[in-house]
Design brief:
This protein has 292 residues and is of the alpha/beta class. It contains 10 helices and 14 strands. The structure holds adenosine-5'-triphosphate (ATP). Adenosine-5'-triphosphate binds next to helix 1.
């Protein structure tokens, strides 16, 4: 059995809620946790990882309160925090061996398991280099490697692609996609394309509340017919930008092409286009734009 159940979970700092009455039931697959900075993603993940005490509510793993698991939770949980620091004096391999013993892996299997996780994250070639010589993407892959040492059933990854270049992001995404079988992965990001192809479910948080509990397909379906493209002169483009949510604006030979989000036709020359997931997300989270 693999089931994470969260009921009416809240986190308060003084009078401010970082998270407010969140309820959620997760089964194997990837849950993309998306929302702007400050939405409450890190607070939620730290509470699931038992690093932060909830103000109210419960988190259960297979029916049992996670705090009751104590040390046994280390067998189940893998966590890559947002501010994952590495020890400069270690090589990748030494670092993983060190963490493996910290996590209580039996001595007899440490070396073998470290080799296995190095292979999973494709860092065998670089394993004997010192960590400060790693690129941002390689550091994040070492971060995933350490989270995988215990082959966790619940893997929590907080904003792993921040600071990575596009090629490293794609590579990291592919790596995570390969890990979704037989485990629950919770991945937080404010870059929707990070979870687009891999998340079976999207939880959109805003100001500590669940704005939508949905799937990429459902989010896209909701945006159908509401994304438009129009090519126009610079003055009209500026007017449209002031009145609508604009997702892209590209200078062309014959004017400026805008993609914008609107329930009704925003301009007589506008045509409906297929929505990207990012546009569907903008639609779901966007503030109501007051028409000029
Ligand atoms: N230790 C703290 N003391 C006071 N307020 C806090 C503390 N930690 C977080 N908060 C507040 O709680 C809210 C949610 O923060 P949280 O870090 O969970 O959001 P987030 O979605 O992970 O954002 P980010 O992507 O920036 O980490 C924010 O308004 C934040 O300022």
């Amino acid at each position: 059995m693999m089931e994470l159940t969260i009921e009416r979970l809240s986190k308060r700092y003084g009078r401010d809620f970082a998270l407010r009455e969140l309820s959620l039931r997760c089964e194997p697959g990837m849950l993309g946790l998306v929302g702007p900075n400050g939405a409450g993603k890190t607070s939620l993940m730290r509470m699931i990882a038992t690093l932060l005490e909830p103000s109210e509510g419960s988190i259960r793993w297979n029916g049992q309160d996670i705090r009751a698991y104590g040390q046994a939770l280390r067998q189940v949980l893998g966590y890559l925090p947002q501010d994952f620091g590495v020890y400069p004096e270690f090589t990748g391999r030494q670092f993983l061996r060190y963490l493996a013993s910290m996590k209580g892996l039996p001595k007899s299997i440490v070396n073998r398991r470290v080799d296995e996780v190095l292979e999973i994250v494709n860092l065998e070639q670089e394993a004997d280099r010192k960590l400060p010589t790693y690129s941002g993407g390689m550091k994040q892959r070492i971060g995933i490697a350490q989270a995988l040492l215990n082959d966790p059933e619940l893997l929590i990854v907080d904003e792993p692609t921040a600071g990575l270049d596009p090629a490293e992001r794609v590579r990291f995404r592919t790596l995570l996609a390969s890990l979704t079988r037989n485990r629950i992965i919770i991945l937080s990001t404010h870059i929707i394309s990070d979870v687009e192809a891999v998340a079976s479910r999207l939880l959109i948080l805003q100001e500590g509340r669940v704005l939508a509990d949905t799937t990429p397909a459902m989010l896209l379906a909701h945006a159908a017919g509401k994304v438009w493209s129009v090519t126009t002169d610079p003055a009209t483009a500026l007017q449209l930008q002031a009145s609508y949510q604009v997702s892209t604006m590209v200078n062309q030979m014959n004017g400026i092409t805008l993609r914008l989000i609107s329930a009704t036709r925003p301009h007589e020359a506008a045509v409906v286009v297929d929505s990207s997931l990012e546009e569907a997300y903008l639609l779901a989270t966007g503030r109501q734009v007051v028409r000029a």
